[in-house]
Write a structure and sequence with these properties.
single chain; alpha/beta
Length: 385
């Protein structure tokens, strides 16, 4: 009888990569997902999908529901996929003793998900990061007095709530809750990453940058080689003896020095550059080094199609987007498993509808119900002081 892996989200292409990899290895794949239908559920790699509560609305109900699925399915392994990892970190006491969880404990994971906690950790281990301080402190006022800066919620993702300020601008006020982070702007090239590690040793890192954007979220990706970034990541991973997936956003300055600006203790779109067949073996065996795919350019087709349509009339941008759309491989496409790409407008409709209603890009609402709950959110900046 094949072993079972339980994924704690199915709506994102990253989940599809993991599901396919385990299925191709002979495992049975089950997905726990708050939406009644989702991208990965359309895949022949998935044996069963189970609808569970949204963790941002009721974390305890979600933990109990996921644990019940794991017990019912006798899952050998639970793999968090995206923002729900901030809740999945607390799963261990709920799971059967024989079920492995691919997530660091809350006391390690949550401080790094906090943008201020990440900066403190990196700085304490000698890793370059932008000058940063909490809103409302004299240090924050000094940062904006010296140059341009950004003000960002400490637990949000996908660029939500980020404000850019020119040098000398008045800082916003802050309300109750976690004060936002004020961070000096570092001029340079921005890169993102996705790393799989085991006990502080990197198994593989993919470094990439956006080749086509939807708001602040990349929907087209270009993989690059950057030894200095790989070294920065390896040092960070070793400093916290990380096991599982971890990702970073970094800016490389004019001198070639990487500065870490955010940590995502989960997968990112960089996972698509891992050879799909190697993902599951590398998760199961830390001695496996997953290969990188031969393609250095990938895209999310439907999102790139939307951006191309929106650029109609801006002819230079439209032509560039059109070339990108028809010259780049989609991250979900597999000839032996075509339905996830074909059916995505239907399976992703709940997210599409929410994005249309809010008037924001797809990526900015895709994980709202599985990330931090509104009652746990950062203090939102209000009027300028």
């Amino acid at each position: 009888m094949p072993e079972t892996v339980l994924l704690t989200l199915g709506r994102l292409p990253k989940a599809l990569d993991i599901a396919r990899s385990f299925a191709w290895l002979g495992w049975r794949v089950v997905v726990a997902e708050p939406f009644p239908r989702h991208l990965t559920g359309a895949s022949r790699a998935v044996a069963r999908s189970v609808q569970v509560p949204a963790p941002a609305q009721d974390q305890t109900a979600w933990l109990r529901a996921v644990a019940a699925v794991a017990a019912e399915e006798r899952a050998a392994l639970v793999v968090p996929v995206s923002e729900e990892v901030v809740h999945a970190a607390a799963l261990r006491p709920f799971l059967p003793a024989e079920t492995r969880l691919l997530a660091m404990p809350p006391d390690v994971l949550l401080p790094l998900h906090d943008k201020a906690g990440f900066i403190d950790h990196a700085r304490a281990h000698g890793l370059p990061v932008p000058e940063s301080a909490l809103l409302g402190t004299t240090e924050a006022a000094a940062i904006v007095a010296r140059g341009p800066c950004v003000v960002k919620p400490r637990r949000a993702c996908s660029g939500r709530g980020v404000t850019k300020l020119a040098a000398g601008s008045a800082l916003p006020l802050t309300g109750p809750g976690l004060p936002p982070l004020v961070q000096a702007f570092v001029a340079g090239q921005e890169f993102s990453s996705c790393t799989l590690a085991h006990e502080g040793r990197v198994q593989r890192t993919a470094i990439y940058r956006g080749s086509l954007m939807s708001g602040t979220v990349s929907v087209g990706f270009e993989r690059v080689d950057h030894p200095a970034i790989e070294d920065w990541i390896a040092r960070f991973v070793a400093s916290c003896r990380w096991t599982g997936f971890i990702a970073f956003d970094l800016i490389v300055d004019a001198a070639g020095v990487p500065h870490g600006i955010e940590c995502n203790p989960r997968t990112t779109s960089g996972l698509h550059f891992f050879e799909t067949a190697d993902i599951a073996p590398a998760i199961l065996d830390p001695g496996v080094t997953p290969r990188l795919r031969s393609e250095t350019h990938l895209q999310q087709f439907w999102s790139c199609l939307t951006e191309t349509q929106h650029s109609f009339g801006d002819w230079p941008r439209f032509r560039a987007n059109l070339r990108h759309l028809f010259g780049t491989r989609d991250v979900t496409w597999a000839a032996r498993d075509p339905l996830p790409l074909v059916t995505m407008p239907w399976t992703a409709w709940p997210i599409i509808a929410a994005a249309k209603k809010a008037g924001v890009p797809f990526g900015e609402v895709a994980t709202i119900d599985v990330g931090w709950a509104p009652t746990e959110e950062d203090a939102a900046p209000s009027a300028a002081a």
